[in-house]
Amino acid sequence: MAFPFYNWQNIRMVVTRSVSFVILVTLLNPILGSTASWAQTSQPNSGSNIQDRVKTQGEWLEFRQTRFVNKPVLLHLRQGYERAVLMPEPIRLENESQTLPGCAVEIDTDVVGFYPTKTFARKSIRFVGLSSGTVYELRVRASPEGIRQPLQITR
Question: Residue 136 is part of which domain span?
Answer without folding.
Answer: 31-154
